[in-house]
Amino acid sequence: MLWLIPLLMLSTVPCAVGAEKAVSGSPEPAMRRRDPPYLMHHTDQTLQTGLMNLLRKQGLWQYANNKTLAVGVVDITDLDNPRYAAINPNHMMYAASLPKIAILLGAYHRIHAGDLKLTPELQDKMTRMIRSSSNTAATEVLDLVGRQYLIDLLKSETLRLYDVDYNGGLWVGKPYAKKGAYQRDPLHSLSHGATVYQTMRFFYLLEIGRLVDEKLYRSMKETLSKPAISHKFVAGLRGRREEVKVYRKSGTWRDYHADVALVETRGRRVIMVGIVQNPKGGKWLQKLAEPLLDLVLDSAD
Question: Which of 35, 138, 258, 274 is the most exposed place for a label (fewest CB within 10 A)?
């Protein structure tokens, strides 16, 4: 059964994150030293059962079964004790513009290293890349970061945001332009890919200080705020606009729909991710947003 996947994965964890070592010659993050738990070690059975029931209630379970829908939610209010639930967390799918968050990460690593300066021009490009999902800005920032540099960063032992032991993860192997892919991911041959699990890890690692240092954390998080495109998760949370703060990135291409949001509300921090291959996927994610948030909030009360 799909809900067993997070539990079964526990026996395949290769090592603790805190024991990971840097690979010589690869770009490594400037980070506050904090050893996070694996999210999968913190599967919450109440959340897991609630997520399964939610998909059934909304008529989406069949799509989870055929792996055209992957979804996850994690409560990271207590950073040392996250509460995690997911369906198809390690099923890698085409994610359109969602992996632009990886380009953002690469830019901030270059900034920390002194290779790039955080000028108003660069900040504007990164902001347009994330909030408005500008393909032109994304390609320009990718060129500044460097194609191989970004791949090495995602695969680095310190971050492992693309990890063959977990069926891949975040990947950018093509400019966001009318050009061919320069390096497709080695497991699935995707040009822009993601898994629910690694996308949730990205935001979790950001919050615990494993992606960037404190100064750049504030800048990076601000760039992820104030989404300019109101659809999917953002549209689904529209009725709570006054009580939630959302940091997000979405992606859309043909019948592929993806979204990730870090939602702060009522003293809690919740990450939700959905990746869908279906023409109705955008509407599905919109309908899932508020129930996913309530699932966490209600179980925490």
Answer: 35
